[in-house]
Design goal:
Strand content: 25-35%
Radius of gyration: 55 Å
Number of strands: 22
Length: 393
Amino acid sequence: YLSDFEVWYVYTESRFPDALPSLYNTRGSEKASDIQWFQAPEVNSYLCRAEQRKTLQQNVDILLNDLQLQPFEVKHNDFSTPMECAMDSTPAPPVHTTPPLPTTTPAPPVGHFNVTKNGTTDACILLQLGAQFSIAYETEMNTTEHAVFYLPADANPSGFCGPNITGITLTSAYDYSFYVQFGITDDQFGIFELMLTFAMKPLLFPDAKDANSTRFIQAFPQPEPLAHLGDSYRCNKAQTFNFNNLSNVVFFDFKVQPFQVTNNTFGDETVCDLDKTTPGPTTAPQATTTPQATTTLEPTTAPPETTPVNSTSTGFTTTAPDNTTTAAPTTPTMTTTPVSTTKSVSPPGPSGGVIAAAVLVPLIVIILAVAGLLYYRKRRGGGDRYTRFGGAL
């Protein structure tokens, strides 16, 4: 791998417009030390035709493309068999694709790792991590499958600690290693690079078309600040980082402090937004929407408890069993019988006409009897008394 990189340049007005006048025609330089770029086995060369962005210092990046290098085991003045970067080897469209296994079950083991400063026991990187890889590969049948495996909790850590860039490599006994690089932006650190180097052994990549070959894939996440220098960053929820459209790594129970570690312990925590998510408001109905116990809904079809409208009309009877009114002629009568009421109605008493008839008829009979008697006596000579009696009458 490449361990140090430095670039020199001259300030010119065309390349550095609006720079301080005193800088023009002077030379500047940027350097990155203790890095692990472009990893490959010693007997192979490294090849990557795709564009790669690398960070040298804070706010200073370099773009590389069509890169091939071999610093060891050069023979016949030519490159050895290249180990190509994943960006150059996009899998062919699959004939049959097996989707990757769920990324949440089972949970991967969580390891605790650290990198110490050279010749000391002082940690400069503290890392807690569980990781699951889902890597697409081509089989001998020209289909695309996925190798799913975990980062072991006992992986062997190694790395470096620079002033602005730090990196840690976790090496598994199953012929693969995982490299994470951290950098600084505006006094906050973030993940700058992820790289997985693996041998396509049958144990992890059964029926692989390029069995036993060594490959690597990289990811360059957007430099999103995670925490301030001197603090740690924690995210227990799953976070997915894509190497390409078909391969990814998922972090679980992730906690890291790659700069300014004190007394080999994590600093104050900055918690990710995923862990801060709180449950939304409950959906229980509010008290204002609950019907009160004192409210009673009256049936809309029940007849009102009142005397029927037509109860005073002689010759009609009103009933309302189905909330409808039916008028039917009956024998004329002076009484009204409301069907829909439960009140008891007393029989009607004698009317004024009946009382008058009961008094006048006997009186007329008596007058007629007296008149008949007087007429009889007149005929027998009692005329004077008849006259007087008649006058009085």
